[in-house]
Amino acid sequence: MIKRILFAALLTLSTLSFGQTNTASPYSFGGIGLINFRGTVEMKSMGGMSVFSDSIHTNIQNPATYANLRFANFSIGGRHNRTSLKSDNESDKTKVSNLDYIIIGIPMGKFGGSFGLYPY
Q1: Are 19 and 119 in contact (CB under 8 A)?
Q2: What totals of helices (H) and strands (E) does the chain contain, helices first?
Q3: Chain-centre distance of CA 113, in angstroms?
Q4: Does residue 120 have a pLDDT over 60?
Q5: Could you tell me if 75 and 57 are in contact, meaning their C-beta atoms sit under 8 angstroms apart?
Q6: What sign for the dihedral angle of Cα 2, 115, 48, 28?
Q7: Per-residue pLDDT reduced to its tens digit, 50-87
Q8: Angle of CA points 118, 119, 120, to nearest 5°
Q9: Closest among 77, 62, 81 to 117, alpha carbons compared
Q10: CA-CA distance, 64 to 68, in Å (whole number)?
Q11: Per-residue model confidence (pLDDT) at position 28
């Protein structure tokens, strides 16, 4: 019974998910679009710096830091954006939610590794 419920939930989730980052920008039609930050929440909190070496966080832009991992860790990030567009004649509201990354970092003695999903 649990397998059927899990299968139904995964099937529903797969039909609702998209591989691209959706946007509600009026500039997307002209090719400009919105540029998203490509990194984890830790990197964004430090102003985009991607050279930090930490023993408990996985740095996806600097794989040399995996050797310092002490614990296995799991990291997930996403974003939600609400936009209200108004003109003289019309108004519209949109909501966009995106999954930014899912990463699992694993220490392996003097080495380390990670795997996960990081949409391009």
Answers
A1: yes
A2: 2, 3
A3: 19
A4: yes
A5: yes
A6: negative
A7: 777 777 888 878 888 888 888 888 888 888 888 888 88
A8: 115
A9: 77
A10: 8
A11: 59
